[in-house]
Amino acid sequence: MQKTEIIETTVRGMGYACVEIAWASAGLLRITIDRPDGEFVTVDDCERVTRQLQYALEVEGLDYRRLEVSSPGLDRLVRLPDDWQRFAGLEVEVTLRAPYRGRKKYRGVLQAPTAAAVGGSAEAPAQADGYVIVWDDALLAAAAAAKPGGKKLKAAKPAAAKKAKPAGADGGAPGANGATGDVHELRFSMAEAREVRLVPVLDFRGRKL
Known about the structure:
single chain, three-stranded mixed sheet, alpha+beta
């Protein structure tokens, strides 16, 4: 099995979701896990997964210097099938694999996945144009003057936007349109996105959103 497959299989087998795998410098292997039930990942969770991964990696003979298992941060990846529904209505930043209209990064409010996207998985993501973010000129201005912490956004109504071009139109590029009311949308498939991350939002009363 491939390295990532061994890690993901081990983590899933323990009842957790494997959000991110990163091989850092000096042999550091970083694993980010989450709980499918929506509860917070605890220190005990991380310790359990660490012990099991150490055993699995040793059995498979995978070389690493140090293993670090942690919970997702505020800028967590949106990657797993359930993530798209779970984080609908929150602000995300999409980094495309290839530039579209002169840039690779777009920021907007994630919409609930369309029927075309249902059925994808981490191993075989849906290839249809089922993923959509929407934004308006106010969000563009806020992104241009982005400050640490960002801000909580309400989900825009998809009905306010004109229908975007399907993903793969215009030579394989994702679709993006202007719309009435200065609302815009970007449709893309996971094959077209290098990564999608939540934009960090902080509530200074101590609550993380």
